[in-house]
Each structure stands twice: as structure tokens, then as C-alpha cells.
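Hi there,

I know you've been waiting on this one. I reran it after we fixed the sequence typo, so this is the corrected version. Both the input and the resulting structure follow.
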Amino acid sequence: MSMGSAVPVLAQSKWSRLGALCLLYFCQGLPIGLFQVAIPAWFAAQGLSLAQVASFIFIVFLPWSFKLLAGPVMDRFAFPTMGRRRPWVILAQLGIVVTFIVVAILSPDPSESYMLLAALGFVANAFGAFQDVAVDGMAIDLLEEDERAQANAYMFGGQIVGTSVAGAVGSAALASYGLTVSALIMAFTVFLIMLVPICLREREGERFLPWTHGQASPEALAGVNESWKDILVSLFRAIVLPMSLLLILLEGFQRMASGMLVSIGPVMTVQDLGWAQTDWSNYYATAGIVASVVAVVLGPLIDRMGSLRVLAVAIAFRFVLFGAFATFTAYWQHTEWVQGMVLLAYISGQIVTVSIIALFMRLCLRRVSATQFAVYMASANLTYSMGSGAVAPLGMLMGYQGMFYVMAGLHVAFLVLLPFMNFERHQRDNEALEASLAQP
């Protein structure tokens, strides 16, 4: 048996697809966990202000808003003999490994090199976002229609677990050994995961490595030679359909609230409530893992009940949760109260993510699906960054209670507009657009 025939083929196995996608999403959670969870908790323990922590998170997460730039490049260019998306995944992971090694070598002190550390976090997350676009395109290309909600649960569950593990392990390493050891642990972990895309193929007959034998599948060749004009025109016309714009707006509301929570969390708990640096990171990790498991278990149920219905229930729950937490401030000194809020926020947030991502996939026009999905994710990540960044000016106008009321209010806006979503109308709009674009 040749090496090529022994390589796993994702298109031929549902569980290979789910397992690989989950592990790849775990990988892209590592730069998020180190720079968005572990290092901000480290900052809070060293006395950096709420504005500094929130600004750092805003900077390092900002590249996830630029995924719309990577999407057209991946739709336009490819090395299809190795698969439509796999070469891009390998390249992105190599970039993450190199960036972590640079962080380990330079090991910047936050009190003296705050912006250098922020810049390195920006670069690491840029490669993570780059990988995300490639993996999303791979998922859209390979998943069957009835696998999507379940796959989203595995994928985004994997990212949350990766973020949680990196946050907990990174925080412990930072507290005990410093930034160099923490970054090297992340680099080695990503290197091990990089062996997965190296050792698989998307479809039968593709090359294992650039210098081995194989050929491109018809699916990998589809759309590679389309012009920039064709891609951008199709993308623009698909994005500006009414239901597309509405779902972007709705997702923006809840993502801003999530961005606010992740910036408030480490400063509020460490500096105001007396938690240790590792207490916040470890509990964030625990809550994230529990949320991921719950989402994976509920994935098939979400498919059966309908993503739109589940989304409405989860958003209503989050409104009540944040409103109640803001109202009963006397309980904030009780650790269990804060832990309960964080756990429920992450469980409900993961259910929202699984549901709304499945809805975004329903909106995509097939000819530009990877690019269109990247735009949806980029807009969601931009509003997440905006939520984190908004904490700095909001902190000068109001306390934590006021900011939690703002988070509750964002969910009210979501609930008011959600009944206007109409996927039957969008299906008709998509079909009309496909017919229009097919005309010479």
C-alpha cells in the first residue's frame, strides 16, 4: 500500500471530519486563550488598569475582524492538488508556531513593552484567524447538510476548550515560570496539532505532500479561476440581502455583550473581588469546557428543535441572566454567585454560537460560500472587539453594574428584531440571485 492510499480522507468519513475540524478549532483557540485570558489575568494581578486590560484584549482580538480579507484570497487562489483548503491550514499553523517562538525569545515585560506584547498577540491571532477562514471553508465544502449543527457544536466546542486550556495552562505557567515557558508550551502544542492537516487529505486522489503524486478533485478546482470581479460582485450582492444584513446586526448585539464580559471579568474578579490571578483563568477554563460539552450534547437537539427557536430561548435567558446579575449587586461578594453567572453566560453563549452559525451557513450563496461565511464571522468578531474596546470609555461613565445593564439591553434589542428573520424569503432571494449571476 502506498503512502497516499494510507492517508485518511475527510470526504469519506463523517467522524474523521468532525474529529479533524474539532481539533483544528482547538488549535486556533490557543492564541486566544493565552492573549485574551491568561495574559489579561496576569496584567490584572500586576495592577494594570481596566482600560489597559480592555485595550489589550481589543488589540489582540482585532485580527479576527479581518477574516473577510482572507476569504477572497482563499476562494481565488489555491494549490488544489493538495486540496482546496488544507495547504492554507498548514501555512497558518506554521505562522502560529513561529509567532509563539518569537514571543518566547523576546519575552517582553508588560510594564516596559506593553505594545510589543500586544503586537505579537495581534500577529498570533492573525494567523489563528487565517486558519479559521481555511477551516470554515473546509467545513462548508465537506459537511453534509444534516451534519452542520452537530459539527458546529464540535468545532466551536473545540475552540472554547482550546481557549480554556490555553488560559488555564498559560496562566499557571505565567505565574510560576514566566512568559517564555508559557509561549513555548503553546508553540509545541500547535506543532503537534499541525501534524493532523499534514497527515490527512480532503478528497481521494489528492497529493499527500507537494512532492508526492496526486491530482486535484473537481470540487477543489471549482471556482479557483473565477476573477476578482466575479467573486466580489457575487459576495456583495449576497451580503446585502435583507435577511443577511439583519442576522449580522443581531449577532453583533450579543457579541458586543460577550466582548464586554471578557474584558470586565479578570479586572473585576482579581482587583475588586480579591480572586487570585489563576482563580479567574482556571474558572474561565472550567466554564468554557462545561459549555462546550453541553453544546456538543445539545447539538442534535438543536437540529431537531430548529436553530432559530433555540436561539430565541438562549438570548432571552441571557437577557434575564445579565439583568439579574446587575440588579443584585449585594451578592457579588459571594464567589458562588459570580461563578454561577459566568458558567451560565458561557453555556448560553455557546448554545447561541452553535445556533447562529448554523443559520449563517443557511444564508450562504454556494459560489462564494467560504468568503461570505468569513464576512459573517469577521463582522461578529469585529463587534466582539468593539465590545471589549467599549469597556474603557464606559468604565469612565459607569460602574460594573451599569455595564451589565448595557449587556442586558443589547439582548433586548436582539429579541425585538429576531421575529423579522424569514429564511423562506431569503431562500427565494438566494435562488433569484443565483439565476441572475448565472446569466452571461
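Quick highlight: Confidence is low (pLDDT under 50) at residues 1-5.

Best,
R. S.
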